[in-house]
Amino acid sequence: MTSDLLAPLDLAFWNIESAQHPMHLGALGVFTADSPSAAQHAAELLATRAAAVPGLRMRIRDVLLPVGGAARVPDPGFDPLDHVRLTGPVRDFHAAAGALMERPLDRSRPPWEAHVLPAAEGASFAVLFKFHHALADGLRALTLAAAVMDPVDLPPARPRPAEEPPRGLRLPLPGVRPITLGDLTPRRLPGLLKGAVADVTQALDIGASVARATLDVRSSPALTSRASGTRRTAGVALDIDDVHRVRKAAGGTVNDVLIAVVAGALRRWLDQRGDGSEGVEPRALIPVSRRRPRTAHPQGNRLSGYLIRLPVADPDPLERLRTVRTAMDRNKDAGPNRGAGAVALLADHVPALGHKLGGPVVGQAARLWFDILVTSVPLPSLGLKLGGCALAEVYPLAPLARGQSLAVAVSTYRSQVHYGLVADAAAVPDLDRLAQALRDELAELAELAEAEARKRVAVE
What is the mean pLDDT of residues 101-122? Predict the structure, then answer.
């Protein structure tokens, strides 16, 4: 097994981390227990299977070249028992997950953990997976987690054409893909120069879009937070059929509906806690994967994003959905490589040493760029099991950016939509109120959408 140099965005995630703002992803899976010893058996299985997964044996180490760079390298002393832990019985999976999510991963070991949480009543258990964002993005984390679950029959993957390795000396230049001696021929130089100009143009376009996005910011103090280092999590399971009913009656995509539900829930939550929603339009970062479907290689993060203003101030749920749909359509038309949401692509234009030295500064800039993260994590439609115990619920958990109080992640699994909420525990002591607001918002949106659909039918 050889080392794997971190891609620029991986390196950025590794360097912006701090003790109060750990950069790990999480997923809280709830399983039905088929015996009193199901949780212990699950922990033993996870440890045994983790030892056989190469990606889980990789730690991150600094390298000499490029200066400031780092790579994933095999850990010769890897012990899965350092990463898989069985806790005592817990009464509230989300309360336990919040306490565990605030703890940074051990950077001297492969940066991942799996905590098995047996329920106090014994009818279920949960597993909290934590993966550092430099080790895996959402799709890669899903692949690693699936590797320690019970085997399932998957559709055959399409073979990928083998890529011819670059020949000759590699010349890494900031902002430009690595160049080989084979590129330095008269025939290839025009294309190389054209690509470099395109890279610079893209960087300028993204930079200008970010500057425009900071103008006339209309967020809420409730979405900002001083770094307390504490975390609170909550989960909400909604019926996917309700989401589809809204989509069919009001238009848009499932993702449009899920984002609109967040906007409406924020409105309810702000009004209930006394902060008020009048004039509030927080900037939401919607990450976009640049991976090809059913592909988790290469290991590095392949992310861009869309930036939209959530219509929290609008009192009409259906109008909020239309606003979200229009904003998302506009972003999709422009593509994931343009606009303020694509700022993650600028990581490719920064040399490794720049990431190492500037990481702490960049980590503090998230609040200037966006107000809340709303991310979607894809999950397989197949039923997953661990030790024969069925996975009933799974709540994705996103890292919380510095200066922000709340992050929202959402996944669709089987017949349900699962929202995973991560908040600064000191800034958001009422996270359960926001969770209830998500339920109430979808219920009202579904009722209004169906009523409007009935009116259209009556007119026709």
Answer: 95
